[in-house]
Amino acid sequence: MRIVSGIQTTGNLHLGNYLGAIKNWVAMQDGLADGDEALFFLADLHSLTVAIPAAERAATTIEMAAVLIASGIDPDRSILFNQARVPAHAELSWILQGTARMGWLNRMTQWKDKAGKNREGASVGLFTYPVLQAADILAYQGTHVPVGDDQKQHLELARDIATKFNLDFDVDLFTLPEPYISPAAPRIMSLRDGTAKMSKSDPSEMSRINLADSDETIAQKFRKAKTDPEPLPDDPALLDARPEAKNLVTIFAALDDTSVPQVLAQFAGQGFGAFKPALADLAIAKLSPIRERLTVLMEDRDAVSGALEKGADKARALAAPTLLAAQRATGLQV
Ligand code: TYM
């Protein structure tokens, strides 16, 4: 088993990233058997698709790495690194650009959403973003890719690219990766709108809980979260028409490692006046230890950078044979 996943180094890590991805990364890391590897990386090359000043990009990479470590990613057990330190990602990405088709990339909903109406003005990197993502995974022969629901389409594309490359060059080189989407929290929604994803790029800070938020901020954001006036039902199916209520119950269940029916069994008949403080207390209990570890880690940024360098050494060694095989398959190397 080769677990591979990444996170783009733009903005703050939020509860959606944590419940949809990072919490599962930690669980998968903790369950690794002998011979398995888990690779987690900061997607700083992907962050080039967003205009960010250089100093901020570098600082964000270190801060996000520290959040991952504070959340339980152990650089001695997992291979933790930033993409830019491992040139195989960019090299393989270019090779795979000969395989990916314009039509495939044109269908990517993330491209359509992010480019919007201004396609002529969008960067080429935003368009080819999913090819780099495919290279991230295929360079390591990733078998399991723990991601939120929003990355499913990119994973399908990675499989299509792998299949076409193997076929075009008549090789059995790339393993087809399987997405692993957390059943508990496939898509955490905005606290302001239960039909929009919780996202780093939402202009409203009140829409998301950041992993670095103080206890007071967490409590305030849940207090102000959009809800409806009805009490919580006992039947989970009744939440389907109440997206904000459903989201808060889902967050509670995911944070507490229980299920939506169990949360409803506890809170059915109660309104949000009672549920929101209980949710805020739970979130604070789970997130404040992460924030405290983060504060300590941020006192020594060089140590975090050193951990990334060590991870990059291991990642370079793991990617090298696959990159060479891809170069041989395409006649770039004999
Ligand atoms: P990114 O940085 O947007 O998000 C990182 C991870 O968090 C998940 N996620 C969510 N899960 C549930 N609810 C949400 N509201 C939510 N928001 C984000 C994402 O699904 C993701 O798993 N393109 C990727 C980064 C990437 C990558 C890769 C991932 C680059 N290369 C290779 C996997 C494999 C991205 O932008 O994720």
From TrEMBL:
<comment type="function">
    <text>Catalyzes the attachment of tryptophan to tRNA(Trp).</text>
</comment>
<feature type="binding site">
    <location>
        <begin position="16"/>
        <end position="17"/>
    </location>
    <ligand>
        <name>ATP</name>
    </ligand>
</feature>
<keyword id="KW-0648">Protein biosynthesis</keyword>
<keyword id="KW-0963">Cytoplasm</keyword>
<feature type="binding site">
    <location>
        <position position="136"/>
    </location>
    <ligand>
        <name>L-tryptophan</name>
    </ligand>
</feature>
<dbReference type="Pfam" id="PF00579">
    <property type="entry name" value="tRNA-synt_1b"/>
</dbReference>
<feature type="short sequence motif" description="'HIGH' region">
    <location>
        <begin position="9"/>
        <end position="17"/>
    </location>
</feature>
<dbReference type="InterPro" id="IPR024109">
    <property type="entry name" value="Trp-tRNA-ligase_bac-type"/>
</dbReference>
<dbReference type="InterPro" id="IPR050203">
    <property type="entry name" value="Trp-tRNA_synthetase"/>
</dbReference>
<keyword id="KW-0547">Nucleotide-binding</keyword>
<protein>
    <recommendedName>
        <fullName>Tryptophan--tRNA ligase</fullName>
        <ecNumber>6.1.1.2</ecNumber>
    </recommendedName>
</protein>
<feature type="short sequence motif" description="'KMSKS' region">
    <location>
        <begin position="197"/>
        <end position="201"/>
    </location>
</feature>
<feature type="binding site">
    <location>
        <begin position="148"/>
        <end position="150"/>
    </location>
    <ligand>
        <name>ATP</name>
    </ligand>
</feature>
<keyword id="KW-0436">Ligase</keyword>
<dbReference type="GO" id="GO:0006436">
    <property type="term" value="P:tryptophanyl-tRNA aminoacylation"/>
</dbReference>
<dbReference type="InterPro" id="IPR014729">
    <property type="entry name" value="Rossmann-like_a/b/a_fold"/>
</dbReference>
<feature type="binding site">
    <location>
        <begin position="197"/>
        <end position="201"/>
    </location>
    <ligand>
        <name>ATP</name>
    </ligand>
</feature>
<dbReference type="GO" id="GO:0005524">
    <property type="term" value="F:ATP binding"/>
</dbReference>
<dbReference type="GO" id="GO:0004830">
    <property type="term" value="F:tryptophan-tRNA ligase activity"/>
</dbReference>
<keyword id="KW-0067">ATP-binding</keyword>
<feature type="binding site">
    <location>
        <position position="188"/>
    </location>
    <ligand>
        <name>ATP</name>
    </ligand>
</feature>
<feature type="binding site">
    <location>
        <begin position="8"/>
        <end position="10"/>
    </location>
    <ligand>
        <name>ATP</name>
    </ligand>
</feature>
<comment type="subunit">
    <text>Homodimer.</text>
</comment>
<dbReference type="InterPro" id="IPR002306">
    <property type="entry name" value="Trp-tRNA-ligase"/>
</dbReference>
<dbReference type="GO" id="GO:0005829">
    <property type="term" value="C:cytosol"/>
</dbReference>
<dbReference type="InterPro" id="IPR002305">
    <property type="entry name" value="aa-tRNA-synth_Ic"/>
</dbReference>
<keyword id="KW-0030">Aminoacyl-tRNA synthetase</keyword>
<comment type="similarity">
    <text>Belongs to the class-I aminoacyl-tRNA synthetase family.</text>
</comment>
